[in-house]
Amino acid sequence: MIKKILKLIFVFILLSNATFHSIANNKLPDNMNTMLLTNKELSKLEIELLNKFLIHQGYKLPSAKTFHLRCLDYFNIDTNEISEDEYKFVGNDNNYINKKGRFLFNFTESIFYRPDLLDAPYTIADARKDLETDYSGETRYFIAYNKLLFNDVADNEFFLKNPALLVEVVLNFNYENNNFLYENAIPLIETNDKTVLPYVLFYNNYHKGYRARLLNDLYVYQGISAIKEILTLLDDNWHKMDSGINLLQTKVIIPQALRDNALLHLLKLVSQHHDQQTTQQHSRSLAYQYLQQFISKDPQLALRLQKNNYYQMGLTLQPEQKQLLSTDNNDLLNNIFITQSSDNYINLRQSPTTKSPVIRQLPNQYKVIKLHTDGNWYYMKSIENESLSGYIHMSQLVYFVQK
């Protein structure tokens, strides 16, 4: 009996040593029971498996520089300040970035978390199989987010079937590189929700400025009512912003000038608005009333606007008439795009279809203004020739960031 016990102990020691050497040499066998590994070993193995799985699914591993810049862009996270193996929380649900694997982790739990198995072995091969068969139901989510954010490859079907996730990537993560997904997200944004306000006004990386493109499109898609809702929320939270706003669950102090700029942009949208029910004069008076309401809460605002000439945003105050006019720099209210095609030319068409007659062939880097959208097509107007307008497929247009 004693011999049998000694023999079992000897076998256990041999297996333990084999396991140790396999881990040390990064050569873990597929039949390795992951429940025998430490948390540190599991984390390292998880990063490796997910990295290889993504690449197998067509993910193009971004360079360290690209990953760094995009993490700054989307999450305002400097990857130089985090360790290689760290899972850095990005501040929204179960989303973490990993520097070593160069991916966004968005599973609810670790891929090795299988409480349903109780004490039964769960091997590396099992984990790999569960990824490939999407056992958790979250694998496509993982693939879709990473390919979009770091490869600019969109799974349109997935995001259109999951509107909440579509809004998350466009609104919360500031992803604007895919015109189709961006356009489909705009009508879904709830401008009367105070938790949405920071994301509507500012980028997570506020050094990029305020979200002029988004504000313009909210006006186009949802009308002046959306702009009024945003102004009401901004008025309610104007002084609360002094102590910071929550962007991805991180308290961020937005520079006063940037807050003023966002306010003035909203007021420009109000001032220039007119339709069958609303005259231009009424809109200018309404913009004036909004401004006075903010000044009554923040008397220093009037001094800042006067000192900075309304931040060169082309607004003119007429106190006697009680009107605020948008007199100049109205390109701020236009979303400008430049044409881009591998053919070095773009067809401007009469209607939104490839079979439509071509009005003119435009060169690359040609500036146009978006007037409205029809499916996958933008109806555009030339900047240099305002009489020239027509349809361009959105895949041939890149948003032009105005300085």
Automatic annotation (TrEMBL):
Any Pfam family hit: SH3_3
Annotated signal peptide: 1-23
Naturally occurring in which organism (per UniProt): Candidatus Schmidhempelia bombi str. Bimp
Protein name stated in the entry: SH3 domain-containing protein
Keywords, comma-separated and alphabetical: Signal
Residue ranges of domain SH3b in the record: 346-394
Keyword Ion transport on entry: no
